[in-house]
Automatic annotation (TrEMBL):
<feature type="transmembrane region" description="Helical">
    <location>
        <begin position="372"/>
        <end position="390"/>
    </location>
</feature>
<feature type="domain" description="ComEC/Rec2-related protein">
    <location>
        <begin position="214"/>
        <end position="478"/>
    </location>
</feature>
<dbReference type="InterPro" id="IPR025405">
    <property type="entry name" value="DUF4131"/>
</dbReference>
<feature type="transmembrane region" description="Helical">
    <location>
        <begin position="402"/>
        <end position="426"/>
    </location>
</feature>
<dbReference type="InterPro" id="IPR052159">
    <property type="entry name" value="Competence_DNA_uptake"/>
</dbReference>
<feature type="transmembrane region" description="Helical">
    <location>
        <begin position="433"/>
        <end position="452"/>
    </location>
</feature>
<protein>
    <submittedName>
        <fullName>ComEC/Rec2-related protein</fullName>
    </submittedName>
</protein>
<keyword id="KW-0812">Transmembrane</keyword>
<dbReference type="GO" id="GO:0005886">
    <property type="term" value="C:plasma membrane"/>
</dbReference>
<keyword id="KW-0472">Membrane</keyword>
<dbReference type="InterPro" id="IPR004477">
    <property type="entry name" value="ComEC_N"/>
</dbReference>
<feature type="region of interest" description="Disordered">
    <location>
        <begin position="719"/>
        <end position="750"/>
    </location>
</feature>
<feature type="compositionally biased region" description="Polar residues">
    <location>
        <begin position="740"/>
        <end position="750"/>
    </location>
</feature>
<feature type="transmembrane region" description="Helical">
    <location>
        <begin position="344"/>
        <end position="360"/>
    </location>
</feature>
<keyword id="KW-1003">Cell membrane</keyword>
<feature type="domain" description="DUF4131">
    <location>
        <begin position="20"/>
        <end position="174"/>
    </location>
</feature>
<feature type="transmembrane region" description="Helical">
    <location>
        <begin position="238"/>
        <end position="261"/>
    </location>
</feature>
Amino acid sequence: MRAGMSGFALGVVALQQLPSLPGGPWLPAALLALPLLALRAPAVRLVAGLALGLGWATLHAHHGLAHRLPLALEGQDLILTGSVADLSEPRGHSTRFVFAPDQARTPNGEPVDARLPRRIRLSAYGLATPPAAGERWRLTVRLRPPAGALNDGGFDYERWLHQNRFDATGYVRAEPAPQRLTEGRGLHALREQIAGAIRERVGQGGAATLLPALAVADRSGMTEAQWSVLGATGTGHLLAISGLHIGLVAGFGFVVGGGVWRCLPALARRSPARMTGAAFALLLAAGYAALAGFTLPTQRALIMLGVALGALMLRRRPTVSHGLLVALTAVLILDPLAPLGPGFWLSFGAVAIIFLLAAHRRADRSGWWVGLRLHALISLALLPVIGWWFDELPLISAPANMLAIPVVAFLVVPPLLLGVPLLALLPPLSEALLVFSLGVLEGLMQGLAWLAEYGQWGDPAGVRQGLWVAAAGALLLLLPPGWFGRWLGLPLLALPVAAGPQPDAASAPSQLAVLDAGRGLISVLVVADRVLVYGSGARVGRGATAAERTLVPWLEVRGLRPDYLIPGGRGSAWTGGLEALRARYPQAHPVTTCEAGGALPPGVRLRPVAGGCALETTLGQARVRLTPSERPHHNGAPPMAVLVAPLTHLQQLEAGGHSPRYRIGYPVRREEATLGNARATAHLGHNPAVLGTVLVRPGAEGLRLECWLRDQGRYFHRPWPPGQGSTDTGEGAPSRWANPLSSRSCEPGP
């Protein structure tokens, strides 16, 4: 059945890469492949498994998308009744929480004629008693479908929402006042009580915020500085309860359960101690997974552990590849969306590497050497996977994990988990255990902070270009001992970091990028071997800015650095990220007034307009004009107009963010612009808040218009918008503008 299971896994993974979901007769046809698994031909089984994997993942995806909030309900007041389905996250003056509704009505009391979202990510502002885990509430909310910024290099929020089964996001209305219907009860309420009790014993500052994360997966108190240190050293996985933690608890249960059973001869004669230890290990692991809220990583770890312990209890000895495929198939049946996250690839990759290295283990090596070598090779071999997902190669992660993993596994987690059940039984002993874990964590974080200062992640552009070189290096390291060239893998792994391309605007093609910055306004113009940033976006909370989340990653994956920072307009939508950009790129020249435009490259001019400065230049044979538009937005704030004559008129909304209501329903108005002797007519045609980043480049067939959603979007991203916008020339326009678009237009296809 290896071929069938391999095909099933390939089918599930392949489905997650599609821009749209198959439908029609595909699902019944996939079921017809089930009898083919009984045939002996591996090729037939592989194809049958592939069809079943595609069919199962398609069915699951259709079911999930059917629960997404209908566009007709976006922005409308709804009265929801339901429960808080996870730990709440205090965020200063607001609280973020997960809400699972079971009833929805309009303010008039009429039931909502639509499928309810399964999980909603809500924010509540200014509530005296914010919602807590396990409580039932009646709330008046305003919702919108899942949406986020779509830019190269940035965090794909829409993918994350889909993977975590969030069918809507929104906020709680202050009026009418929210009503709490019942007190907190159930598993999540217990987790929140444990987290609160831990904070009472050890405080809420410094490393103390990490203890609730390791005990009950409550990471709400962690600071940006802590996440930065963990990210820079590649040790963030230690704070996400998953395979390492579940395996540690299971190992403890196996040793203790088997040892106690051996001390009872009457029972040991009836059942082998190994089987009892396996059952006890699975029980303790399930209990720890429950404390973590049965998150998807813990479910995945439990399945993998269950396959291994099940084989032990049934006295089976499957091959390593067969056991790994069984676990992989079971995980993908339970969660076909698992391949959308890096945890799936890192966890199965680590297990596969462990088994592969165990097969090559030399008997003359002592235990400490085997463990040291195992830690180092796992960390190094997984670097290409990390580079694929995060555009980073943290070479410092190998020594950091060799330090952190044994410390967390043996000195932090055991006393912490022993102290949790003693919180109510023996408070003094519990507090002593928690304080011990806290002291170890404080020392560990200091060491990781020191390592983070020397952690070089490399240029993201170099990482992307050299990823296959790093992958070849990882494969060489995994060769059996004695193979020629095995240790050449180390320099190959480091090559993308050491030889990554330096930022160079001279090698970048001329282009205009209007980024999908949500509530911010950001464009990048590469012209005359210079990089100009027009607009710096808005602030997005917790000290972060849209520029840091969208512009910086976009520049880094291209190996670019800005030469000029031009606010463009006035107000927070234009200047919110200017200070952060100046700190990150001190070499960039800030152009804060229209009169300072004389310092810009030749051919680039700034002109005073209402609301700020308009930027004018040429892109190939086209004229480009970026300006804060005089046309008011729905809330009176000025949007940004981008006119590429005579190509199209790009409109980026200042407020409303990625709201489909404002994206699609925004009124279309034709505008005329006279640029030199050419007269062109264009209108609201391509909105970055709809299509992700919109990129305009000169090409052999005219201007080339590309958009992120069309080129890289997948089925779980925002729907492809209805036909909006066109490009036509006005009377008297030169004939060469009759068809300015190349074949790669962002216009919706037929």
